[in-house]
Amino acid sequence: MKKYFILMTMLALLSCKKEEKEPIYIPSFTIVKVDTLMQDKISIRALLTDGDKVWYAGNGGKYGYVSLSGGKSLNGVVAKDSALPEFRSIAKNKSDIFILNAGTPAMLYKISKDGMAVRKVYTETGEKVFYDSMQFYNDTDGIAMGDPTDGCLSVIITEDGGGNWRKVSCEVLPETANGEAAFAASNSNLIIKGDNTWMVSGGKKSRVFYSADRGKSWKVYDTPMAQGSEMTGIFSADFYDDKIGFAVGGDYEKPDKNSGNKILTINGGKDWQLVGEGAGFGYASCVQFVPDGNGNELVTCGPSGIFYSFDRGATWKKILDDKTLHTLRFADNKTIIAAGQGKIIRIKLQ
């Protein structure tokens, strides 16, 4: 009897410890209000918030900003000879906005935040040239990534505030697999937190490339994301901090398939696990962590609509049935800015 009592006590203590380790997830909002900030004949996949302004870049060479407080807006167009580039990457530092098109020739433009000065600061030609995403670490150092051209992902960097850019040698970068590339779906193939950099790939191989030192050295990690054909893999990723990350994608040609399309890491990208299998959306083009959500809350967009999770992707709730949105960013932890076919909208969370 005494042994039985001791055994039951130990089991109870172990049960308590297990319960203490289980995270508690609490939804932070239930009500959604939507208003339209801009309408135009444009497809937008490059979007960022900068104080009161939402900057965008899209097809037809179009770029500009809208105000969140009802102030003036800016509409600009960049043309190369008779061609109108399709911009899918956008980034910022303290003084300027940078936009980069997909396809060849790649053209990277530096735009002053007052919109008065527009200057091309990098160009690259070649049959395989296709840039996907761009970010800045600080006001001086920036990075952009794209599809492989010489056996590794294309990476260009600036160290002078964006005035000059240079391409990184494949001697520094991991070799890509046959059929491995990236998707310019929402300017979120490239993620930066402090000195940490992650680049995500898709196609016949879907992996995560990681650098702890702003791109000086790299490691690469496999993922369980759907892969193996040209239009499968990771389309978007985000990191809440240097440990918790989430990626979405799946199979672009099977947009309703809601398995093999959501993966979570809690150790900085070294290991990933499938979550939310058979739940929520199918193919998705963008994912973002909710600010101040402790790495538990996520929002995605794509042809299934906008979905929200409060438990790190285990369960999902559709919060907006809009199937035309490609990308989204948070202006604050209660305001989503989303863009896609012909518009930019604001979603207020309460």
Overview in brief:
With 350 residues, the chain is mainly β.
Describe the structure.
The chain is mainly beta and 350 residues long. It has one helix spanning 2-21; strands at residues 32-50, 53-58, 62-67, 74-77, 86-92, 96-102, 106-112, 118-124, 131-136, 142-146, 154-158, 166-167, 180-181, 190-193, 196-200, 202-203, 207-211, 219-222, 232-239, 245-251, 262-265, 273-274, 286-289, 298-301, 306-309, 317-320, 325-332, 335-349. The chain has a single domain (32-349), classed as Methylamine Dehydrogenase, Chain H, CATH 2.130.10. A hairpin with an 8-residue loop joins strand 23 and strand 24 (298-301). The radius of gyration is 21 Å and the shape is globular.
Characteristics:
Methylamine Dehydrogenase, Chain H, mainly beta, disordered N terminus, 1 helix
